[in-house]
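Handout for the seminar on molecular recognition.
Each group receives one record of this type.
Step one: identify the two inputs.
Step two: read the structure output and locate the region that could contact fe (ii) ion.
Step three: write two sentences on what you found, then compare them with the reference statements printed after the record.
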Amino acid sequence: MIVTYEALRNDPEVREMIAAADAQMKAIGYTEHGMRHAGIIAQNAGMILERLGRFSEREVELGKIAGLLHDIGNLVSRTNHANTSALLAYDLLRERGMPIREVTQVVAAIGSHDEEEHVEATSEIGAAVVIGDKADVARERVRNPLVAAWDIHDRINYAATETQLEVTLEPCTVSLDLTIDTEIGSVMEYFEIFLSRMVTSRKAARLLGCDFHLIINEVTLL
Ligand SMILES: [Fe+2]
Ligand SMILES: [Fe+2]
C-alpha cells in the first residue's frame, strides 16, 4: 500500500494527534507546534532532498512524511518526544499499510530529530528533517499575547520577520537566511538559543555532504 504525504496530511486521526500535541505545547507555554509547524518541516525536508537531486520521488515523500509526524509525540509529553513520536508514527503508518522497509526509515528519521535528547541524525532523510525543523523560526509561532511574559524563545521567534532555507549545489550548501528585528531580539540572544541548534544543523548538513551557513541580516555568521 502506498501511503502518501497528502493522504496523511488530510487524515483526521493525524490531524487530531497533531492538534493534541500542539495543545500540550501550549499548556506548557511553548511556541506553536501544530499543523503549521508540521507542514513547514515536511516542506523543508522534501525541498532539501529534492534539491539534492539524488533521491527518488518516494524517498522525498518519506522525508515529507517524517517531517509531518516528527513532533506528534508531544501529545504524550515533551520529555523524550522524539522517541514517542517515532513509536506513534510506527503504529499509524503500519495501520495504514505502509511497508515495514519504509516505516523503519521514517521512524529512524523522527526518533533522532531532537538535539536536546542528545541524538543526531543517522540517515539522510533524518538529516533533512533536522535541518528543516531547526529552520522554523517565525513570528507566527509566538502565541503568548503578553509581551511582558515572553521568554527568550518567544522574543527570538517574534523578532524573526523573514526566514529562508535554501540549498545550492556545487559545492552543496544549505543556508538559513534570517531577517531579525534587532529592536525585539538581539543577534546575541539569537545565538544564545540557537547555537546548539545550528551545530546540529551543520552536522546534519555534513551527513548530506553539504556545508551549512547561517546568515542573519545579510551577515554570514556560520
Ligand atoms: Fe521535536
Ligand atoms: Fe519540531
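Reference statements: The chain has one domain: 5-220. The first helix runs from residue 5 to 9.
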